[in-house]
């Protein structure tokens, strides 16, 4: 176990290409931290700087409080698992897993003991004498993880380790990695992925990175927090749009009035919507974006503030139905999530209930207005019962 700190970390690649801008971040001992963001935002670059495979242009990288900027990879107490497992094809599973220890001249009995222990944890004991070509993709990835485990690192680094696996295996291996962290006595892990579902399901802490805009093309942190914090309190439009599928509906409008608990917004169609949040730092007339997640819209609402819209299209997934609705002004359709068996004829006009407590609001610069805390208490998710802080809770 080890803590990792980034202090004003910048990375400029040769040719004066700025890639990482001013990253400040603390990863605690034993934490499973996920770096997530669109392709090209600098996730791998950050991870490779921790590993020592990439120079740090400026700033300090600390492992357990010690600056390690110039320390070679082998002296950092880390082990890395890549997307491509890169096993040695001519070696058995056991020899692949013990390779780093043989390089370090560890005694044979100790190597065998470590390999056996890792094989047990990963349930590959029956595969130890096979060659990589005799394994499935999932088994190979487990061997690659085993190779990292035998080194007993303080920090595990994973760079999109599941991208080469098919959908079913990805879910299974994802659960195995989360359980592995517990079995290993909570080793510290940094896990890189572009997949927000992987980030949500695995992370203690999510670090969401943005690629920047047209003028500033470098990765920077958009938000850091627990999965539920990012879901319920996205700090900006980027975070709001990145976490959640289908994406949060974002409707342009302007602020009409604001109290500490209630904001009235005239959306682009001229309709008025109330959001239960504090927009008092803005002036009436300020340009805003109102956000509401598809799963929080109540189709066929009675007694709720509602938008009346025509159904353009539906997608039936069995357990739920996505309803795409006409938007008078914006190019994007509004999306609502309904029950799987709800009748929603195309062309019909439906009343979409917009619960004021479910609304998000963003200012012209895309920064979120603060939402009250009490909506988390309203969640009543069974697995949150008894948890001391619902935002920190994670499925066991
Ligand atoms: N060796 C390199 N030299 C120059 N630019 C690079 C190099 N490696 C990566 N980049 C650029 O840095 C940015 C971030 O890359 P990367 O860290 O691989 O992103 P991610 O892992 O988030 O997809 C990209 O724009 C990429 O083209
Ligand atoms: Mg990458």
From TrEMBL:
It is an enzyme of class 3 (hydrolase). Gene3D superfamilies: 2.40.50.100, Nucleic acid-binding proteins, P-loop containing nucleotide triphosphate hydrolases. InterPro entries: AAA+_ATPase (IPR003593), ABC_transporter-like_ATP-bd (IPR003439), ABC_transporter-like_CS (IPR017871), ABC_transpr_MalK-like (IPR015855), ABC_transpr_MalK/UgpC-like (IPR047641), Mo/tungstate-bd_C_term_dom (IPR008995), NA-bd_OB-fold (IPR012340), OB_MalK-like (IPR040582). It comes from Niveibacterium umoris. SMART domains: AAA. One of its GO terms (cellular component) is maltose transport complex. Residues 4-243 form the ABC transporter domain. GO terms for molecular function: ABC-type maltose transporter activity; ATP binding; ATP hydrolysis activity. Its EC number is 3.6.3.-. PANTHER family: MALTODEXTRIN IMPORT ATP-BINDING PROTEIN MSMX, MALTOSE_MALTODEXTRIN IMPORT ATP-BINDING PROTEIN MALK. The lineage of its organism: Bacteria, Pseudomonadati, Pseudomonadota, Betaproteobacteria, Rhodocyclales. This is Multiple sugar transport system ATP-binding protein. Keywords: ATP-binding, Cell inner membrane, Cell membrane, Hydrolase, Membrane, Nucleotide-binding, Sugar transport, Transport. The keyword Nucleotide-binding applies.
């Amino acid at each position: 176990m080890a803590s990792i700190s980034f202090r004003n970390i910048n990375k400029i690649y040769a040719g004066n290409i700025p890639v990482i801008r001013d990253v400040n971040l603390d990863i605690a001992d034993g934490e499973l931290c996920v770096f997530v963001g669109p392709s090209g935002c600098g996730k791998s670059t950050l991870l490779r700087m921790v590993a020592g495979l990439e120079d740090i242009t400026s700033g300090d990288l600390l492992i357990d409080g010690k600056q390690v900027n110039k320390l070679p990879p082998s002296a950092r107490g880390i082990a890395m698992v890549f997307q491509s497992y890169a096993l040695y094809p001519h070696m058995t599973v056991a020899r692949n897993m013990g390779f780093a220890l043989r390089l370090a001249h560890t005694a044979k009995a100790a190597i065998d003991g470590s390999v056996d222990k890792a094989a047990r944890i990963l349930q590959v004991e029956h595969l130890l004498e096979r060659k990589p070509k005799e394994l499935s993709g999932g088994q190979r990835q487990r061997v690659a993880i085993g190779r990292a485990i035998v080194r007993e690192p303080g920090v595990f680094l994973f760079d999109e380790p599941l991208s080469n696996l098919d959908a079913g295996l990805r879910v299974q291996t994802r659960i195995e990695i989360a359980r592995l962290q517990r079995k290993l006595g909570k080793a510290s892990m940094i896990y890189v992925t572009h997949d927000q579902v992987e980030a949500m399901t695995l992370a203690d802490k999510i670090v969401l990175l943005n690629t920047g805009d047209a003028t500033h093309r470098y990765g920077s942190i958009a938000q850091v927090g627990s999965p539920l914090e990012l879901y319920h309190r996205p700090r900006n439009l980027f975070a709001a749009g990145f976490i959640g599928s289908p994406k949060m509906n974002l409707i342009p409008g302007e602020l009409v009035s604001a109290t500490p608990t209630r904001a009235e917004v005239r959306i682009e169609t001229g309709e008025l919507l109330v959001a239960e949040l504090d927009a008092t730092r803005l002036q009436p007339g300020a340009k805003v974006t109102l956000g509401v997640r598809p799963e929080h819209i109540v189709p066929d609402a009675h007694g709720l503030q509602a938008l009346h819209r025509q159904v353009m299209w539906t997608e039936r997934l069995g357990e739920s139905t996505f309803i795409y609705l006409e938007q008078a002004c914006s190019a994007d359709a509004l999306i609502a999530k309904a029950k799987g068996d709800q009748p929603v004829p195309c062309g019909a006009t439906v009343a979409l209930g917009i619960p004021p407590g479910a609304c998000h609001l963003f200012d012209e610069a895309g920064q979120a207005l603060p939402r009250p805390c009490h909506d988390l208490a309203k969640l009543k998710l069974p697995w949150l019962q008894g948890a001391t802080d619902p935002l920190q809770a994670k499925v066991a």
